[in-house]
Amino acid sequence: MTILTEGKDGPVILSPEQVEELGQALDALRARVEADLGERDRDYIYKIIKTQRGFEIAGRGLMYLGFLPPFWLAGVAALGVSKILDNMEIGHNVMHGQYDWMRERGINSREFDWDTVCPADQWKHSHNYMHHTYTNVHDMDRDIGYGILRIDEGQKWNPYYLGNPIYAFLLMVLFEWGVMVHDLEADNIIKGKRKWSDLKPLLKGQGKKAGKQVLKDYVVFPALTGPLFLHTLAGNAAANLVRNLWTFSIIFCGHFPAGVQTFTKEETEVETRGEWYVRQMLGSANIKGSKLFHIMSGNLSHQIEHHLFPDIPANRYPEMAAEVKALAEKYGLPYNTGRFSKQIGSVWAKIFLLAVPDRFVKRTPTPGVIVVRNRKATEVGV
Question: Which residue spans traverse the membrane (predicted)?
């Protein structure tokens, strides 16, 4: 793995021995946390579930007074919080298998379904498998641009990308729908790399899940409020919009702010465990914030720790972060973190800058890291 762009003081060079030492230290951290999992973590996730349900009940109830603007706004806020908690701190984390060790019904990755239009099984394929296995690897990790955006210099510019800011805005507003169609690989259909016939089972699952969500949010619950049908429909739509804006922002802050690095398939071929860890650290970013901020982000404000330990309960990431940061400093690796305003600002700056041809934009060098790989020719397919 070689990151070619040199930083201000030249590239950091890690030997194979250093990389494996780092990997062993991170494995030891994982083992200590896994051994400590127990009642504390069980209580935490059930407390979050209870809170989420409380906000949903409050939001649904307030919609019966939706003809009064203060109550309508309060209902939207409560439903928005409920949907954010359901998607991020509960759904995302449970479907990663973070609580499978509890062996309890309704709180494991095989059974859980969330309050969004994307089928759980399709999300687990595109996210848990493709994204977390091939994090930031071009032509492998489809989260790089979501098949829509130019979000990295490694994506060759073409005139289509002049609309980059518009595509990003639409993806943000309709984020749950963008996540739903992600596994279809529509761009590969257009390029002829995938057949329409491949999509039939995916479309069937999406239709069933999306139909259920649309019926719930835009027919059943509005109908239950009788003459306030349109008020409730608008309130539910607004709550979904709040969730979409927040989720998009947190996810993009963790993956695409300034300093996050991407890789080629050749650079990541036949990775060792230590090299995989290094790639996760270079390809992720954190967001500073309060305890409440971390909860509302599903602890994806600790995206570095999440990419290192995706199946460890996310409530443990804040305490693991100090050790991960110390290891990064020990080995000279960047630990990308900053305020929300800084990270989201750099994301949107990239979206706008990458919309135009490279020759018109002056780039800021990314800190260089060179991982020396000790491979035999037969191991890399030469």
Answer: 62-85
Cα 191 from Cα 319, distance rounded (Å): 45
Pairing of strands 12-14, 369-371: parallel
Q: Are 358 and 157 in contact (CB under 8 A)?
A: yes
CA distance 171 to 167: 6
**Tokens 């609580």 found at:** 99
pLDDT in tens, 217-268: 999 999 999 999 999 999 999 999 999 999 999 999 999 999 999 999 988 8
Residues 318 and 336: their CA atoms lie apart, in Å, by: 15
E-strand stretches of the chain: 12-14, 286-288, 337-339, 369-371
CB 288 within 8 A of CB 294: no
- The burial of 318, by beta-carbon neighbours within 10 Å (0-12 exposed, 13-18 middle, 19 or more buried), is given as middle
Domain boundaries, the chain: 12-371
CA 244/CA 172 separation, integer angstroms: 6
Which residue from 174, 163, 323 is spatially nearest to 240, judged by alpha carbons? Answer: 174
